[in-house]
Structures are given as C-alpha cells and as structure tokens.
Specification:
The complex is a heterodimer of chains A (469) and B (180). Chain A is of the alpha+beta class and 469 residues long. In chain A, 17% of the residues lie in helices and 31% in strands. Chain A folds into two domains: 89 residues; 339 residues, Neuraminidase, CATH 2.120.10. Chain B has ten helices and no strands. Chain B folds into two domains: 75 residues, Rna Polymerase Sigma Factor, Chain: A, CATH 1.10.1740; 93 residues, Arc Repressor Mutant, subunit A, CATH 1.10.10. Classes of the chains: A alpha+beta (469), B mainly alpha (180).
Chain lengths: 469, 180
C-alpha cells in the first residue's frame, strides 16, 4: 500500500456513514415527478406547435385538413394558392370542378393548373406543361374534364377518375394544337391547329380550325391569317349548330346544318369575338368585346351585341362594361338574371388592341383576375379578384345556373406561421435529442464498470478542467 | 415499496463507503453529505432500472459528476494552503497530520484530478474503471492522473515517495513541462 493510499484511508477512516436515505428517496421522488411532468409538457408543447404550424400548410382557412366544406355546387367567391401539400388530381381525383386557374408561382412546370371542386373547396393540381386556364386549357361545360394543349396533341384530363388521355394531332404537319371551345353537351371541341411551316417567324403561318368529336375530326376552316387570341377564337351556340370564329378582323358565322356562312368585319383591332360565351342563350345574338376609347384612362371594356347575320349592333344603349380592366372575356350568361358573366383581367398595362393573332394577352404581366357579372346597374363581383394567378376558366353549368357559394381558399402561410413551423421543427429536433440523451443517460452501467451513461447528471466531457491555483 | 426496500438495503450496505469517498472529494462533511444525498437521489430516481445493472457503479458515477457539476456552478477561487508537516510528532499526531495533509492537498487539485486520485488510490480502481466512472476516455484519466501527481508532489512530496508516475500513467514525461 502506497503512502498516498494510506493517507487517503487514514483521512476517511473516521468519516461516519451519512444518514441520507430518507432525504435521497424524497428528492428522487420529486425528480421523478418533475421529469415525468417535463416530458409530458415538452411533448404536448411540440405537438401544439406542430399543429399550429401545419394546419395552414395542410388545409384551408376554416376548413378541415382535407380543405373541403361542402355547400352544394357553385362558384366560390374566393380562391387562393393551393397549400404546399395539395394533392394532384391524378393521385386523388376530386370530381368535377367549378373553376380552374393558372398560378405561375406554383411548383408545377409553367405554373400548372389548379382545380377547385364544384361542391366544395377541394383543391387539386394538374401539370399542364404551361397551358393557361381559359386560354389554352379549357374546362368542359359540366366541369368534369379539362382539355389542354400538350405540344402537337391535346390532353384530356378526367377530373372524376384522374385519368389523362392523349389525343393525337388531327392534322398532319401541325406544330401546336390548342383547344378553342367545347360543345355545350361536352361531346367534342373545336381546336386550333397551327402549322408554322418550319419557321414560326416567317409569314404564311397556317391556322386550321378543326372539330374533334365522337365521330373523329373534321376540318372547319383554314386560313393563313392568324386567329383571334386564344380564349377569344371560337364560340359555339348552345344548340351546337352554329359556330362563330374569328380570323384577323373577320368573324365568320357558320351554320353546320345549312352549311351557310356569314362574315362580320370588325371595325378595328380593339374589337374581338367576346369569347366562348359570345352567343346569347337564345342563340340569336353574338357578343364582341370592345375597348372604349372615349375615356382612354378609364380602361373600360364593354360588350356589344351584334346581329350574327348582318353584324349590326342590336341595342347600342345596352353595353355592359367593366373598368378598370386590361381585358375581359365572356364566359356565358346567368340564366337567373340574364346578365353576362365575364373574366376581368387586371395587368400592368391594358390591352390596347388584340392585334389579331399577336396573343397580346400572353405578353401581359397579370396582377389579378376576377369574375364579374355585368348587370344593368353596374358590375357585380362574383369571384373576388385574385392576385398571383394568370387566368381562369369556369364550368358553363356553373355560369349558366348562376350558382355561387362562399369560398374557403387555402390561406397563405404568414411569416409568424412559417416561424412557428421552423421553430416547431427545431423544438421537435431538440426534444428528440433530449429524449435520446435521457435514454442514453438511463443506460445501466454494466457490472464491470463499463457503459456510457452519465447517471442523469450533466456530462463533464465537453469542458476541460482548468488547472487550479 | 419493494423498490424502496431494495434501495434502502443498498444504501445501508454502501453508505459508509460512499460517505468516505464523498468526504475525500469535498474535504467537508456538510458538502460530502449533500453530495451523497444528491447521488443517491439520482440513483433512486431511476432505481427500477438501475438495480438491474450495477447500482454501485451508477451511484459512484453520479457522485463524481455531481461533484464536478457543483464545482462548475460555484467555481470557488482555490488558494493553495501551506501544507506544513511538524518536525516532531507522535504516532497519534502523525496520523492526524497525515489526514490534514492529504485533505489540504486534495483541496488544491481540480475536481476531476481529485476524483482520479480518490478513484485510483482510495477505491483502487483501474484506469478503465476510473474512465467509466468519470465518463471520459482512458487517455483523459492518464492526463488527469499525471497532472494531479505532479501537483501533489509539489505540495506533499513525502506522500508520493513510493508512487511512480511512469508505472501508473504510462510513459514517463518530463515533469517540468507539466508543472504548474
């Protein structure tokens, strides 16, 4: 035995056994209770923070996580950006939509397209490879399908089943096929087939209108001149017998039964076919949109109703209008009020003219888009102007029935909520580390003196002990 | 209740040894009593699982860590007291002097150095067991041991007349480099 050992034993020889058992047991019990309480509290806190953070990410304002609250079919009065976890309609089809819109800031290529359920605010996304709702992606009259341009082909997406069907280019040599209008019964549609003849900048672009229906495809018209902008090109009357389409500044009205064609020459390039809803419900009047230049600053667009045979304005005293607007497009007519329902586009600049073929709408930096009913006493907002979207389309059945409902769009994530989400994540990680360390601390020391536990007290490994003195 | 009984049995069997070790670590009865109580409370907190393993190793580790942790919180300014050894002494007074000397010398050491000395020379643990008790590597134990002996050699060289640093701590190193 060394002198050091002897000295230590001598120093400890008379030390009594301290009677601390009762106090240690009482203290140990308190620590057990505190520890259990802390674990439970930390777990609850983490769960609450996660719930607070995730609810706005997953769902919609005032709606359950699924983002749906059924109020019957109708056009919601508000729409918004889908949540980050909004599912694709291919994975989780949600049935017919009341409205589809394009949101360029979305995660899908070209912004993608978002469909909002007809009965409830069920949001679904669809990758349309850049096709824009209302222009190159059209919702079917019953809201059950979406036809959109996919390069040289048309893709038909079924919102009920989630299936996508590719319809091959009906015209040999076509470079791009764009849907222009659905027939009212959903039996087919008219498409614009563009052949660039190898050089899209060169003159001589051929744009052919083709009818695609159950019986196959058949040519409707061909011209070397450009068609009116997408979304304004074709209007089919409710019975499907008469088709109006525009090339350059000429609207052609074609009766499929009698095979008779009439043409209407428009007075200027600030006037164009009003859109797919240009036919009044009785099929006897055709509407055009016109940029009012009496007050240039007012940015007023109005509808003018023409006789489809003569092209003469029927009632110059009735020109429903919307201002300020960069452009309007006629969706259809509310059967309850008889008033037209239009899409109002507000961009950084007004479309002075359509340029007939320039598709000048595509050049605009759109600020917000809404849906308005242009009554005799002025416009009424049906769907509130929504910032951040490029354009939208509404199912004909919804427009015609005049059905609206309260919308519950997904809420944008605020900075506070984002911070809560990040904080919640960090807290969850910290809690995980804490639990792991605690379990590690509880690891029982093996009889040979090994083991890695720290007996539930702070470890001393991380700090060097400074020399004393 | 069975847990509490077994814990009390354990305390009865080991409290004397724990008390002595705690006294050597702290150099003060009150602090030692408090240290033992803290270590036993930590042990009782997890007793259902601890008793299935090696309770003594667990409580020892708890005690040493509580000791270091407490030192960190308080961080007293330690001043090396003069360790005086009387020239002439009886057997009884020699023992008393030895006690005073070792207690005073231990106080000068840093807590982990002190723990290494107590574990190695009082509880007679190996380096590996000491490392396990302090939850550090064997290399750290060797360094602490070396530094502690160097310090003690300055303060009370007569206690280390028969202690070889080489034998206990591995290869010999020049003392002068590490002397404080």
């Amino acid at each position: 035995m060394s002198a050091l050992t002897a000295a230590l034993r001598a120093a400890a020889e008379d030390v009594p056994a301290y009677d601390v058992a009762d106090a240690a047991i009482a203290l140990g019990r308190r620590r057990r209770r505190r520890s259990a309480l802390a674990s439970t509290g930390a777990g609850l806190l983490v769960l609450i923070l996660l719930a607070v953070a995730l609810i706005p990410l997953l769902g919609s304002r005032g709606s359950p996580l699924g983002g749906a609250r059924s109020e019957g079919p109708g056009l919601p009065d508000r729409i918004g950006s889908p949540g980050v976890l909004t599912r694709s309609m291919g994975i989780a089809p949600a049935g017919p939509a009341s409205v589809v819109f394009t949101e360029p800031s979305g995660l899908l290529s070209g912004g993608g397209l978002v469909a909002v359920g007809a009965d409830a605010d069920t949001y679904r996304t669809l990758d349309t490879a850049g096709a824009i709702a209302g222009r190159t992606a059209l919702l079917s009259p019953d809201g059950g399908r979406i036809a959109f341009s996919w390069g040289k082909d048309i893709v038909m997406a079924d919102l009920r089943t989630g299936r996508r069907q590719r319809i091959l280019d009906p015209v040999v040599g076509g470079d791009r096929v764009v849907p222009a209008a659905w027939f009212a019964d959903g039996s087919g549609l008219i498409v614009v087939v563009t052949s660039h003849a190898g050089d899209p900048t060169a003159p001589g672009i051929v744009q052919e209108l083709t009818i695609m229906d159950m019986s196959g495809s058949s040519g409707l018209a061909t011209a070397t001149g450009p068609v009116a902008p997408y979304g304004f090109t074709v209007a089919i009357n409710p019975s499907g017998t008469t088709i109006a389409y525009q090339y350059s500044n000429v609207i052609t009205v074609y009766n499929r039964i009698t095979n008779v064609k009439h043409t209407i020459t428009l007075p200027d390039d600030r006037t164009a076919l009003a859109g797919r809803g240009a036919w009044t419900p009785d099929g006897r009047t055709l509407a055009v949109v016109h940029r009012d230049t009496d007050d240039y600053q007012a940015r007023r667009w109005e509808l003018r109703l023409l006789d489809p045979v003569t092209g003469v304005e029927r009632d110059p005293g009735y020109r429903p209008s919307l201002a300020p607007a960069s452009a309007i497009r006629l969706l259809g007519w509310d059967s309850q009020t008889g008033d037209p329902v239009v899409v109002g586009i507000d961009a950084d600049q007004t479309v002075d003219n359509f340029g007939y073929g320039g598709n000048s709408l595509d050049q605009l930096a759109v600020k917000k888009v809404g849906v308005y009913e242009l009554g005799r006493n002025g416009p009424r907002t049906v769907l509130a102007p929504t910032p951040g979207i490029t354009d939208l389309d509404v199912a004909d059945s919804i427009v015609t029935a005049g059905l609206t409902r309260r919308g519950y769009p997904p809420r944008a994530v605020s900075a506070v909520e984002l911070a809560a989400a990040v904080g919640g994540g960090l807290l969850l990680a910290a809690w995980g580390v804490w639990v792991w360390r605690r379990r590690r601390a509880l690891r029982i020391v093996e009889p040979d003196g090994g083991g890695q536990g720290d007996a539930g007290v702070p470890s001393t490994r991380s700090r060097a002990i400074p020399p004393s003195g | 209740m069975a847990d509490e009984e077994s814990f009390r049995d354990f305390v009865r069997a080991r409290s004397a040894a724990l008390s002595r070790a705690a006294y050597l670590l702290t150099g003060d009865h009150h602090l030692a009593q408090d240290l033992v109580q803290t270590a036993l409370a930590a042990t009782y907190q997890h007793w259902p699982r601890v008793q299935a393993g090696n309770p003594e190793a667990y409580v020892r580790r708890a005690m040493h860590h509580a000791h270091v942790s407490r030192w960190r919180k308080r961080r007293p300014i330690e001043v090396a007291p003069a360790v005086e050894v009387p020239d002439h002494a009886t057997d009884e007074s020699e023992t008393a002097t030895l006690r005073l000397t070792i207690v005073a010398a231990l106080r000068v050491l840093a807590p982990r150095q002190r723990a290494v000395i107590v574990l190695r020379y009082f509880e007679d643990l190996t380096e590996a067991q000491t490392a396990a008790a302090l939850n550090c590597s064997v290399g750290t134990v060797k360094r602490l041991h070396f530094d502690a002996l160097a310090r003690l050699r300055d303060l009370a060289p007569h206690l280390l007349a028969d202690v070889s640093i080489v034998d206990r701590s591995g290869p010999a190193q020049p003392l002068g480099v590490h002397l404080l």
